[in-house]
Design brief:
Length: 175
C-alpha cells in the first residue's frame, strides 16, 4: 500500500492511495468523513459494525460517515493494483482500531454491494473543491505521477458533480 498525502489546507485534505493487496487498517474519524473516488481497479469498503461491504469501480464514489469503523481493500483480482483518491473536509483526525476487535470476521462472508451512482455530502465547499480541481489540472504536486494527477482532477470534479451542499447524515450508512 502506498499513500500520498499532498494537500491539506483550509480544511480540505486530499490523498491518493495505491493498493496492492494490503488493506488500509480499520479506523474511524470523529471529525471528518471519507469521500472515496475509485480511479483504478476495484475498491472494497468494509463497514463491519453495519455488516456491509461496498465495492466501487473506476469513476464511482462512496462516502463513509464519520464515526463508522471502516477500511479500504483492493477488491480487484490478485495481481491487479487499485487506486483511490480520498477527500476529507474539516479538521483531520484518525483513530485506528486494534486488530483484536475481530472486525474482519464480521464481514468475511458478506457479499459486496456494488455502488454505482452514489452522492457525496460536500457541505458548502463546492467552489473550493472546484478551484482545487482547476489548480491541480495545471500544477502537479511533486509526489504524484502524471496519471495520478489526472485521477485527482477527475475525482475532485466528480465530488463537485455528485456533491450535496450539506453535512453527511451521521445516523445511517447509505450508498
Amino acid at each position: 500500500m502506498e499513500m500520498k498525502e499532498f494537500y491539506y489546507q483550509d480544511g480540505l485534505r486530499v490523498s491518493v492511495f495505491n493498493l496492492d493487496h494490503e488493506a488500509v487498517p480499520y479506523h474511524f474519524h470523529n471529525e471528518v468523513s471519507d469521500m472515496v473516488y475509485c480511479s483504478r481497479g476495484q475498491i472494497a469498503i468494509e463497514l463491519p459494525e453495519a455488516g456491509e461491504v461496498f465495492t466501487l469501480h473506476p469513476g464511482e464514489v462512496f462516502q463513509v460517515p464519520r464515526t463508522n469503523k471502516h477500511r479500504f481493500v483492493n477488491g480487484a483480482p490478485v495481481g491487479t493494483h487499485s487506486r483511490y483518491v480520498l477527500l476529507q473536509i474539516g479538521a483531520f483526525d484518525i483513530n485506528f482500531v486494534p486488530p483484536a476487535e475481530g472486525l474482519a470476521e464480521k464481514v468475511a462472508d458478506r457479499e459486496a454491494t456494488h455502488v454505482a451512482d452514489a452522492e457525496v455530502y460536500i457541505e458548502n465547499r463546492e467552489g473550493d473543491i472546484r478551484k482545487l480541481a482547476e489548480h491541480f489540472a495545471v500544477e502537479k504536486p511533486e509526489v504524484l505521477t502524471e496519471e495520478e494527477q489526472g485521477d485527482v482532477v477527475q475525482a475532485l470534479r466528480c465530488f463537485v458533480d455528485r456533491g450535496i451542499a450539506a453535512e453527511h447524515p451521521r445516523a445511517a450508512v447509505q450508498p
